[in-house]
Input
Amino acid sequence: MTLRFLALLFALIVPALAMPLRAQAQTIEIKTSMGVITAELYGDKAPKTVANFVQYVKAGFFNGTVFHRVIPDFMIQGGGFTPDMKQKEPRPPIQHEGREALAKGAKNDVGTLAMARTNDPHSATAQFFINVKDNDFLNPTLIPPGDPVPRFEYQGRVYENTPRANLVNAPQLWGYTVFGKITKGMDIVEKIKQVPTATVGGHQNVPVTPVVIESVKLVDAGTGK
Output
């Protein structure tokens, strides 16, 4: 093996080793009573959120749950209730990473998956929703640099000379974390969003006929298996 060959080999290998590692794309298949939905998870944009969601998938948590909240011009939400509207017990909530995901291009656009939560930004567990339109108002607000922050406007309200901590903790500024997007089966989502709904046990916008999530599984993006 000549020195010239070794030098060439070294020149090829070192740049490859120096390249940053990217999170491998993960694909899920959501089999519902109305058809199959396939989605790509944004492991590179919302790694903690995706890891949490995948744990629920591997545990079979979503199997047999329903899309329990359907609003035609907004979103469809599921992953937490059984067909008789009993809520399943999830694992502890995760930290919100919507701002990090937004900074990498993950917006609440039509066809994206996002985590549902309460007024507490750090309360997301298993429930998720699929945007059926571009819901820009659900996107987090990226706080401008500085302390106190410069004057800026959010949803018609002006923030000026407010301590950074107060803004960071303002629930209305956190938005919702987007962690994936549908790649196939948007027609199924369109069908689901049109189902008749009613109020059931205090829950609004519940499909009259349950839309069951029969299973959610990880699939190979190349083979679909």
Observations:
- The longest helix spans residues 3-18.
- Confidence is low (pLDDT under 50) at residues 14-23.
- The helical segments are 3-18, 47-58, 98-103, 164-168, 186-192.
- Residues 107 and 181 are 10 Å apart (CA to CA).
